[in-house]
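[recover] target loaded
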Protein backbone atom coordinates (compact mmCIF):
# COMPACT_ATOMS: atom_id res chain seq x y z
CA UNK A 1 0.00 0.00 0.00
CA UNK A 2 1.38 3.43 -0.93
CA UNK A 3 0.68 6.93 0.40
CA UNK A 4 0.87 10.21 -1.46
CA UNK A 5 3.33 12.73 -0.03
CA UNK A 6 1.83 15.74 1.68
CA UNK A 7 -1.22 13.88 3.06
CA UNK A 8 -2.70 14.23 6.54
CA UNK A 9 -0.36 12.82 9.17
CA UNK A 10 -2.50 13.24 12.30
CA UNK A 11 -5.62 11.25 13.13
CA UNK A 12 -7.60 14.23 14.40
CA UNK A 13 -7.02 16.18 11.21
CA UNK A 14 -8.91 13.70 9.08
CA UNK A 15 -12.34 14.90 7.93
CA UNK A 16 -14.22 11.92 9.37
CA UNK A 17 -12.64 11.74 12.82
CA UNK A 18 -13.01 13.63 16.13
CA UNK A 19 -11.32 17.02 16.13
CA UNK A 20 -9.46 16.82 19.47
CA UNK A 21 -8.00 14.27 21.90
CA UNK A 22 -8.76 16.42 24.97
CA UNK A 23 -11.07 14.66 27.42
CA UNK A 24 -10.89 11.35 25.56
CA UNK A 25 -8.34 9.51 27.74
CA UNK A 26 -8.94 5.77 27.93
CA UNK A 27 -11.45 5.79 25.07
CA UNK A 28 -11.22 3.98 21.74
CA UNK A 29 -12.06 4.90 18.16
CA UNK A 30 -15.07 3.15 16.65
CA UNK A 31 -17.36 3.51 13.65
CA UNK A 32 -20.38 5.66 14.51
CA UNK A 33 -23.99 4.53 14.29
CA UNK A 34 -24.42 6.16 10.84
CA UNK A 35 -21.41 4.18 9.61
CA UNK A 36 -19.86 7.23 7.95
CA UNK A 37 -17.18 8.36 10.42
CA UNK A 38 -15.16 7.44 13.48
CA UNK A 39 -15.86 8.57 17.02
CA UNK A 40 -14.41 8.02 20.49
CA UNK A 41 -16.31 5.63 22.74
CA UNK A 42 -15.84 4.42 26.31
CA UNK A 43 -14.38 0.94 26.43
CA UNK A 44 -16.48 -1.71 28.09
CA UNK A 45 -15.24 -3.03 31.41
CA UNK A 46 -12.67 -5.78 31.26
CA UNK A 47 -13.92 -9.33 31.05
CA UNK A 48 -12.54 -11.93 33.44
CA UNK A 49 -12.23 -15.38 31.91
CA UNK A 50 -12.00 -18.65 33.84
CA UNK A 51 -8.74 -20.48 33.30
CA UNK A 52 -9.33 -24.22 33.62
CA UNK A 53 -6.78 -26.40 35.40
CA UNK A 54 -6.76 -29.51 37.57
CA UNK A 55 -3.92 -28.98 40.03
CA UNK A 56 -3.51 -30.74 43.38
CA UNK A 57 -2.88 -28.08 46.01
CA UNK A 58 -2.89 -30.33 49.06
CA UNK A 59 -3.15 -33.98 50.01
CA UNK A 60 -2.89 -35.16 53.59
CA UNK A 61 -3.92 -34.13 57.10
CA UNK A 62 -4.95 -30.65 58.25
CA UNK A 63 -5.41 -29.35 61.79
CA UNK A 64 -7.83 -26.73 63.15
CA UNK A 65 -5.39 -23.79 62.88
CA UNK A 66 -5.56 -21.43 59.92
CA UNK A 67 -2.56 -21.80 57.60
CA UNK A 68 -1.64 -20.34 54.23
CA UNK A 69 -2.52 -22.29 51.09
CA UNK A 70 -0.49 -21.32 48.03
CA UNK A 71 -2.64 -21.60 44.91
CA UNK A 72 0.23 -20.58 42.63
CA UNK A 73 -1.78 -18.12 40.55
CA UNK A 74 -1.11 -14.68 42.01
CA UNK A 75 -4.02 -12.37 42.78
CA UNK A 76 -7.16 -14.13 41.55
CA UNK A 77 -10.51 -15.67 42.40
CA UNK A 78 -10.09 -19.43 42.69
CA UNK A 79 -12.49 -22.37 42.48
CA UNK A 80 -11.39 -25.36 44.57
CA UNK A 81 -12.67 -28.91 44.75
CA UNK A 82 -12.51 -30.49 48.22
CA UNK A 83 -12.38 -34.27 48.39
CA UNK A 84 -12.79 -36.29 51.57
CA UNK A 85 -11.59 -39.87 51.50
CA UNK A 86 -11.88 -40.59 55.20
CA UNK A 87 -14.89 -41.88 57.13
CA UNK A 88 -15.69 -38.71 58.98
CA UNK A 89 -17.77 -35.55 58.84
CA UNK A 90 -16.99 -31.92 59.39
CA UNK A 91 -16.12 -28.69 57.65
CA UNK A 92 -13.29 -26.99 55.81
CA UNK A 93 -13.07 -23.18 55.86
CA UNK A 94 -11.31 -20.98 53.30
CA UNK A 95 -10.69 -17.26 53.77
CA UNK A 96 -8.60 -14.57 52.08
CA UNK A 97 -5.10 -14.79 53.51
CA UNK A 98 -5.37 -11.20 54.75
CA UNK A 99 -8.75 -11.71 56.46
CA UNK A 100 -8.46 -10.50 60.05
CA UNK A 101 -11.68 -12.09 61.28
CA UNK A 102 -11.35 -15.60 62.66
CA UNK A 103 -14.87 -16.33 63.91
CA UNK A 104 -16.17 -18.09 60.83
CA UNK A 105 -19.78 -19.05 60.39
CA UNK A 106 -19.94 -22.81 59.93
CA UNK A 107 -22.03 -24.65 57.38
CA UNK A 108 -22.70 -21.66 55.13
CA UNK A 109 -21.28 -19.52 52.38
CA UNK A 110 -18.95 -19.90 49.43
CA UNK A 111 -16.04 -20.20 51.88
CA UNK A 112 -17.24 -23.42 53.52
CA UNK A 113 -17.31 -27.09 52.58
CA UNK A 114 -19.16 -29.59 54.73
CA UNK A 115 -19.15 -33.28 53.97
CA UNK A 116 -18.83 -36.92 54.93
CA UNK A 117 -16.62 -39.78 53.76
CA UNK A 118 -16.03 -40.17 50.01
CA UNK A 119 -17.78 -36.94 49.20
CA UNK A 120 -16.71 -33.89 47.22
CA UNK A 121 -17.72 -30.25 47.27
CA UNK A 122 -16.55 -26.89 46.01
CA UNK A 123 -15.52 -23.51 47.42
CA UNK A 124 -14.70 -20.15 45.88
CA UNK A 125 -12.53 -17.39 47.31
CA UNK A 126 -10.07 -14.66 46.35
CA UNK A 127 -6.34 -14.97 46.92
CA UNK A 128 -3.90 -12.31 48.06
CA UNK A 129 -1.25 -10.76 45.77
CA UNK A 130 0.97 -13.80 46.36
CA UNK A 131 -1.79 -16.24 45.33
CA UNK A 132 -2.53 -17.48 48.85
CA UNK A 133 -5.66 -18.31 50.83
CA UNK A 134 -5.78 -19.43 54.42
CA UNK A 135 -7.68 -22.53 55.48
CA UNK A 136 -8.47 -24.85 58.36
CA UNK A 137 -10.55 -27.90 59.23
CA UNK A 138 -13.41 -28.04 61.74
CA UNK A 139 -15.28 -30.76 63.59
CA UNK A 140 -14.44 -34.42 63.10
CA UNK A 141 -12.33 -33.69 60.01
CA UNK A 142 -9.59 -32.12 62.17
CA UNK A 143 -6.47 -34.26 61.99
CA UNK A 144 -7.98 -36.79 59.61
CA UNK A 145 -6.00 -37.98 56.59
CA UNK A 146 -7.12 -38.13 52.99
CA UNK A 147 -8.13 -34.52 52.43
CA UNK A 148 -7.32 -33.49 48.87
CA UNK A 149 -7.70 -30.00 47.44
CA UNK A 150 -7.78 -29.44 43.68
CA UNK A 151 -7.58 -26.08 41.96
CA UNK A 152 -10.08 -26.38 39.09
CA UNK A 153 -10.24 -22.83 37.77
CA UNK A 154 -9.15 -19.28 38.47
CA UNK A 155 -9.96 -15.79 37.25
CA UNK A 156 -6.98 -13.43 36.93
CA UNK A 157 -7.21 -9.64 37.13
CA UNK A 158 -10.14 -9.70 39.52
CA UNK A 159 -10.17 -6.54 41.67
CA UNK A 160 -9.90 -6.46 45.46
CA UNK A 161 -11.96 -3.46 46.50
CA UNK A 162 -12.98 -4.58 50.00
CA UNK A 163 -15.57 -1.80 49.76
CA UNK A 164 -18.26 -1.27 52.39
CA UNK A 165 -21.65 -1.49 50.65
CA UNK A 166 -23.96 -1.82 53.64
CA UNK A 167 -23.79 -1.08 57.35
CA UNK A 168 -26.91 -1.06 59.46
CA UNK A 169 -29.96 -3.01 60.58
CA UNK A 170 -31.59 -5.67 58.46
CA UNK A 171 -35.17 -5.65 57.24
CA UNK A 172 -37.66 -8.49 56.90
CA UNK A 173 -38.80 -7.21 53.51
CA UNK A 174 -36.77 -7.54 50.31
CA UNK A 175 -34.52 -4.52 49.90
CA UNK A 176 -32.38 -3.35 46.99
CA UNK A 177 -28.62 -3.40 47.57
CA UNK A 178 -26.23 -1.61 45.23
CA UNK A 179 -23.17 -3.87 45.09
CA UNK A 180 -21.30 -1.34 42.95
CA UNK A 181 -20.44 -3.56 39.96
CA UNK A 182 -22.74 -4.31 37.02
CA UNK A 183 -23.48 -7.70 35.44
CA UNK A 184 -20.96 -9.36 37.71
CA UNK A 185 -20.43 -12.43 39.83
CA UNK A 186 -19.57 -10.82 43.15
CA UNK A 187 -18.15 -12.25 46.37
CA UNK A 188 -19.55 -10.32 49.33
CA UNK A 189 -18.60 -10.61 52.99
CA UNK A 190 -21.26 -10.56 55.69
CA UNK A 191 -20.17 -9.54 59.20
CA UNK A 192 -22.69 -9.78 62.04
CA UNK A 193 -22.18 -6.98 64.59
CA UNK A 194 -25.13 -7.90 66.78
CA UNK A 195 -25.14 -10.63 69.44
CA UNK A 196 -28.21 -12.31 68.03
CA UNK A 197 -29.01 -14.94 65.44
CA UNK A 198 -29.14 -13.50 61.94
CA UNK A 199 -30.09 -15.10 58.64
CA UNK A 200 -29.29 -13.20 55.44
CA UNK A 201 -30.85 -14.16 52.10
CA UNK A 202 -29.85 -12.76 48.71
CA UNK A 203 -31.55 -13.10 45.36
CA UNK A 204 -31.26 -11.70 41.88
CA UNK A 205 -32.81 -8.31 41.34
CA UNK A 206 -36.35 -8.82 40.04
CA UNK A 207 -36.69 -12.42 41.29
CA UNK A 208 -40.38 -13.13 41.82
CA UNK A 209 -40.04 -16.11 44.20
CA UNK A 210 -38.99 -16.28 47.82
CA UNK A 211 -35.44 -17.42 48.52
CA UNK A 212 -34.86 -20.24 50.96
CA UNK A 213 -32.34 -19.74 53.77
CA UNK A 214 -29.08 -21.65 53.15
CA UNK A 215 -30.36 -22.78 49.75
CA UNK A 216 -27.22 -22.87 47.64
CA UNK A 217 -25.59 -19.52 46.96
CA UNK A 218 -28.68 -17.75 48.27
CA UNK A 219 -28.37 -17.62 52.05
CA UNK A 220 -26.00 -17.40 55.00
CA UNK A 221 -26.51 -17.71 58.69
CA UNK A 222 -24.48 -16.32 61.59
CA UNK A 223 -25.47 -17.03 65.20
CA UNK A 224 -22.87 -15.02 67.16
CA UNK A 225 -21.38 -11.53 67.24
CA UNK A 226 -18.57 -10.77 64.77
CA UNK A 227 -19.07 -13.94 62.77
CA UNK A 228 -18.17 -13.62 59.12
CA UNK A 229 -19.39 -15.47 56.05
CA UNK A 230 -18.93 -15.10 52.30
CA UNK A 231 -21.57 -15.32 49.60
CA UNK A 232 -21.53 -15.43 45.80
CA UNK A 233 -24.18 -13.23 44.16
CA UNK A 234 -25.08 -12.06 40.64
CA UNK A 235 -25.69 -8.34 40.04
CA UNK A 236 -27.96 -6.89 37.38
CA UNK A 237 -27.17 -4.32 34.67
CA UNK A 238 -27.35 -1.53 37.26
CA UNK A 239 -25.27 -3.38 39.87
CA UNK A 240 -28.10 -4.42 42.22
CA UNK A 241 -29.23 -7.51 44.11
CA UNK A 242 -32.07 -7.88 46.61
CA UNK A 243 -31.73 -9.06 50.19
CA UNK A 244 -33.90 -9.86 53.19
CA UNK A 245 -33.23 -10.81 56.79
CA UNK A 246 -34.56 -13.53 59.03
CA UNK A 247 -34.78 -11.21 62.02
CA UNK A 248 -35.55 -7.50 61.88
CA UNK A 249 -33.20 -5.07 63.57
CA UNK A 250 -30.05 -7.23 63.68
CA UNK A 251 -27.06 -5.11 62.71
CA UNK A 252 -24.42 -6.19 60.23
CA UNK A 253 -22.09 -4.93 57.52
CA UNK A 254 -21.50 -6.12 53.96
CA UNK A 255 -18.28 -5.64 52.00
CA UNK A 256 -17.63 -6.24 48.32
CA UNK A 257 -14.59 -8.53 48.43
CA UNK A 258 -13.98 -9.23 44.73
CA UNK A 259 -15.87 -9.77 41.50
CA UNK A 260 -15.84 -11.33 38.04
CA UNK A 261 -16.85 -9.03 35.18
CA UNK A 262 -18.11 -9.91 31.74
CA UNK A 263 -20.54 -12.66 32.72
CA UNK A 264 -23.32 -13.18 30.22
CA UNK A 265 -26.89 -13.33 31.50
CA UNK A 266 -28.61 -15.98 29.35
CA UNK A 267 -31.54 -16.62 31.72
CA UNK A 268 -31.91 -19.88 29.85
CA UNK A 269 -34.45 -22.47 31.01
CA UNK A 270 -32.78 -25.90 30.86
CA UNK A 271 -35.15 -28.15 32.81
CA UNK A 272 -38.83 -28.25 33.83
CA UNK A 273 -39.98 -31.61 35.22
CA UNK A 274 -39.60 -33.79 38.31
CA UNK A 275 -36.04 -33.78 39.62
CA UNK A 276 -34.07 -37.01 38.99
CA UNK A 277 -33.14 -39.10 42.01
CA UNK A 278 -30.11 -40.60 40.22
CA UNK A 279 -27.20 -38.61 38.81
CA UNK A 280 -28.33 -37.36 35.41
CA UNK A 281 -26.69 -35.29 32.68
CA UNK A 282 -28.10 -31.82 32.26
CA UNK A 283 -27.32 -30.49 28.77
CA UNK A 284 -27.32 -26.72 28.28
CA UNK A 285 -25.67 -26.16 24.84
CA UNK A 286 -23.75 -23.24 26.37
CA UNK A 287 -20.28 -24.75 26.08
CA UNK A 288 -17.56 -24.66 28.71
CA UNK A 289 -17.86 -22.19 31.54
CA UNK A 290 -19.18 -21.63 35.06
CA UNK A 291 -22.94 -21.37 35.41
CA UNK A 292 -25.01 -19.68 38.13
CA UNK A 293 -28.08 -21.93 38.31
CA UNK A 294 -31.51 -21.04 39.69
CA UNK A 295 -33.53 -23.96 41.06
CA UNK A 296 -37.22 -23.30 41.61
CA UNK A 297 -39.09 -25.91 43.67
CA UNK A 298 -42.55 -25.82 42.06
CA UNK A 299 -43.87 -28.57 44.30
CA UNK A 300 -46.07 -28.03 47.36
CA UNK A 301 -43.66 -30.29 49.26
CA UNK A 302 -40.37 -29.23 50.83
CA UNK A 303 -36.80 -30.40 50.58
CA UNK A 304 -35.86 -31.56 47.08
CA UNK A 305 -32.22 -31.54 48.31
CA UNK A 306 -30.73 -31.16 44.85
CA UNK A 307 -27.03 -31.05 44.07
CA UNK A 308 -24.85 -30.40 41.04
CA UNK A 309 -21.43 -31.74 40.09
CA UNK A 310 -19.03 -31.78 37.16
CA UNK A 311 -19.86 -34.17 34.37
CA UNK A 312 -17.90 -37.37 35.00
CA UNK A 313 -17.30 -36.70 38.71
CA UNK A 314 -16.55 -40.01 40.44
CA UNK A 315 -17.31 -38.89 44.00
CA UNK A 316 -20.73 -38.26 45.46
CA UNK A 317 -21.73 -34.72 46.32
CA UNK A 318 -22.96 -34.28 49.86
CA UNK A 319 -26.59 -33.11 49.71
CA UNK A 320 -26.29 -30.26 52.11
CA UNK A 321 -27.12 -26.57 51.88
CA UNK A 322 -23.71 -25.92 53.43
CA UNK A 323 -22.11 -26.82 50.09
CA UNK A 324 -23.14 -23.45 48.79
CA UNK A 325 -21.60 -23.63 45.34
CA UNK A 326 -23.03 -26.97 44.32
CA UNK A 327 -26.20 -27.66 46.31
CA UNK A 328 -29.38 -25.70 46.06
CA UNK A 329 -30.25 -27.43 49.28
CA UNK A 330 -33.43 -27.97 51.26
CA UNK A 331 -35.69 -25.63 49.32
CA UNK A 332 -39.13 -25.14 50.79
CA UNK A 333 -42.17 -25.32 48.56
CA UNK A 334 -42.40 -22.63 45.85
CA UNK A 335 -39.05 -21.11 46.81
CA UNK A 336 -35.76 -20.82 44.96
CA UNK A 337 -32.10 -21.55 45.59
CA UNK A 338 -28.94 -21.02 43.57
CA UNK A 339 -25.88 -23.09 42.71
CA UNK A 340 -22.61 -22.41 40.87
CA UNK A 341 -20.93 -25.18 38.91
CA UNK A 342 -18.68 -25.87 35.92
CA UNK A 343 -20.12 -26.86 32.55
CA UNK A 344 -17.90 -29.11 30.43
CA UNK A 345 -16.93 -28.36 26.82
CA UNK A 346 -20.37 -29.54 25.69
CA UNK A 347 -22.20 -27.40 28.25
CA UNK A 348 -23.11 -30.39 30.41
CA UNK A 349 -23.20 -30.95 34.16
CA UNK A 350 -24.72 -33.68 36.33
CA UNK A 351 -27.41 -33.23 38.94
CA UNK A 352 -29.76 -35.20 41.14
CA UNK A 353 -32.11 -34.84 44.06
CA UNK A 354 -33.03 -36.89 47.10
CA UNK A 355 -36.68 -36.23 46.33
CA UNK A 356 -38.39 -36.12 42.93
CA UNK A 357 -39.98 -32.70 43.32
CA UNK A 358 -41.32 -30.69 40.40
CA UNK A 359 -38.36 -28.47 39.52
CA UNK A 360 -37.44 -25.71 37.12
CA UNK A 361 -33.77 -24.97 36.38
CA UNK A 362 -32.54 -21.80 34.72
CA UNK A 363 -29.02 -20.60 33.91
CA UNK A 364 -29.00 -17.04 35.19
CA UNK A 365 -25.35 -16.12 34.56
CA UNK A 366 -22.37 -17.66 32.80
CA UNK A 367 -18.65 -16.90 33.04
CA UNK A 368 -16.84 -18.33 30.02
Amino acid sequence: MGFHPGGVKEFIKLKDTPAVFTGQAGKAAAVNIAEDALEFITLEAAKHYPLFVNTVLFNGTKDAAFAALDCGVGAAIVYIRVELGAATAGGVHFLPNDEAGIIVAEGIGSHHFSGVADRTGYVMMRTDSAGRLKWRTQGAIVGVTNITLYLLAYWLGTPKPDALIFNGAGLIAYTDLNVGVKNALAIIKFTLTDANVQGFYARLKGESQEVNLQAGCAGIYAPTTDQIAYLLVVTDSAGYIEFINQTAGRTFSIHLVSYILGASMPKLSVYDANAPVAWTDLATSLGRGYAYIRHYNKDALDDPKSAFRQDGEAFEVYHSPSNQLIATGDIEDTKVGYAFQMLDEYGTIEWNSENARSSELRIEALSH
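[recover] notes: The chain has no helices and 28 strands.
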